[in-house]
Amino acid sequence: MAGSDNFGVEKGMGSRAIEWMNSYSREKKKEFEARLEGYQISSKNFGNFEIISWTGNWSDARKIILKVSTKLSIKVIESGYHQKDNLFLSFFGLGKEFAKVYKKGNYIGTIVLGIRSGKWYIKAEKPG
Hints:
26% of the residues lie in helices and 52% in strands. It is built from 3 helices and 7 strands. It has a 7-stranded antiparallel β-sheet, covered by helices on one side.
């Protein structure tokens, strides 16, 4: 079963989003469970996000994070994208991880994430 800690939901909406996503996944019998990580990241262009971790199926996770963005009219970060030539480096925390930012289910930009002391931070961002 896959898992990650690199998705995010709009600050102030974390608990509500987690509750909705977990309820939706149980109802639809999807392999997905999310929880808040207890820290935030800040973006100049997109605002602040609460980081969430999840376990389950990658495909289900991506669909559910987009669905919660639409249903709750919030911004979300959908991460897990890597440059193909740097996949090896990313396993050791040396590569870049890219994330798409969505608002109400619509793509609004991209951010580049880095990791420091086990926590994600934003290296760069670009409105879409």
